[in-house]
Model the fold of this input.
Amino acid sequence: MGTDTCGYFDHDADIGIIGRGDTLEHAFEGAAQAMFAIMIDIAALRPEITVRFTFEESDVELALVSWLNLLLAHAREQQTVFSHFGLRREGNRWHGEASGQRWQRDMERGVEVKGATLTMLAVEQTPAGWEARCIVDV
Amino acid sequence: MDLSKLQQIDPYSWSVPLHAGEKRAPVRLFGSAPLLATMDDKVLEQIVNVACLPGLVGAAMTMPDAHWGYGFPIGGVAAFDAEQGGIISAGGVGFDISCGIRCLRSNLDSKALLPHLEHLADVLFRDIPAGMGEEGELRLSPRELDVVLQRGAEWAVQAGYGVAQDLEFIEEHGRVPGAVPEAVSDLAKKRQRGEMGTLGSGNHYLEVQIVERIYDTSAAQAFGLAEGQIVVSIHCGSRGLGHQIGTDYLVTLAKAASRLGVTLPDRELACAPIKSREGQQYLGAMNAGINCALANRQILTHLTRSAFARVFPQAMLETLFDVSHNTCKAEQHVVDGQLRLLYVHRKGATRAFGPGHPALPQRYQQSGQPVIIGGSMGTGSYILAGNPESENSAYASASHGAGRAMSRKQALKHWNGRDLLDGLKRKGILIRTRSMRGAAEEAPGAYKDVDLVAEATEMAGLARRVAFLRPCACIKG
Done:
């Protein structure tokens, strides 16, 4: 996980995540890395299982929340943790992909993320590139 | 929080003056000056936003343990009237629908327990699925899960997880009406597949506690509590199903609010009129989530009893009470002399019905409802009793926990998980966890002083202290 692609900010009870990238999609991928790194050491994971999904959303901020929450849902459903992410946008249609490993009892765990929220939700283009941020509920 | 922005009503109650041209309902914050001074200014910003929502009856309120949440502050209470365009908000309930605490009183005392505490902690840690990724043994078909969503803890007891007497001491007897399993997405149901009977992670825990001090002898007698007695508190909620309901409806309600002309000062307040199609769907799904949480805590109660029986064959664990603190419930309250049906949102706030309330079991008719303020794993917890509504001006609501005083990010800078656990062990508190990061984030020092919260809760008239519980073993999620 590169420190330039993701980061965190303070919130009393929960955790603020930041994804950065040269494109909107890369910033969303960075946000996904930041979120899963709360739960697991993603650098130690191998991309053994891949899930692919699509969703529709015209609002880019809501698209960030939908992207993150769909990743959480697919991870739980498959008993998997993800470390590699890919996202492609075609108009209002988003094509997501995530790879990772099934849970192992001996994995060093962090804290479970329940969901991505709309609080402090922002998707912005800055001089340095795109930045996507929100609070995740843990 | 900048107290100069507030107007003090009495030592434990504050309001927020209206600025010229500002249109909103009143705001009331409960708590002492020291507690409010440590709260983030965001708490004030968030509760003022809640006071702008349509159909709010009376004031938007925060409890003494309030802290910055998402949309609503944690510790926020707000009641809405459907007949006056009142709304229901997913942000006002939270992702962990019906997160709450089940408290069990035992027939053991500390003398009998302490010599076997290490063994008990190990058995509980082995038998209670806790932490990220841990699954329960129960697997339900989609049809069976729909029955759980309709029948809650009642289903669990019928399936052999507990005894009928448990139901008497759970809010709504373990089963809220109005659940609509069809309003819960397939994804939410799939997420629950391995999660029935699991504790979860974050601030969830199962704690073995000693009753260290009794404040109210009469209420303690009604609650079956005595000094030195062992009790168990189980803090968890509706797991993946509830999280997914929150997720699904957050976006649905945010869009509905815009379409239905509800102006939101913060998008996270995602809501819809209670009478709208979206409002009714969320209400049905949320009630299903509540039943899921009640069933989950019932299964965990059964697992806890089984674990205790392995170490103490003579142990008996009776349900003292089960309270939820992330809900929206339809309740009748007297407002300006009139009985009205209100949808009371309590996000990180406990219902606290007073003596004589018809919803309470006979055993607690004189004392009022048991209210549980869960503390951090190193300090302690309180059991309180609900006051009459003539004393409680927060729609029969009270605090739910110590409340965070420090962010998780800051906590990670201050504490190392292993060192923290070793320090607690030296104090006689055994922690079992699979996450050292989680332990550091949940360090007792990251929470407010639970003694101050409980005292302020009593002094504000919200509930009165009955007993203080000291932790001796904690299974952390």
Notes: The two ends of chain B are 31 Å apart (CA to CA). Chain B touches chain A through 51 residues (CB under 8 Å).
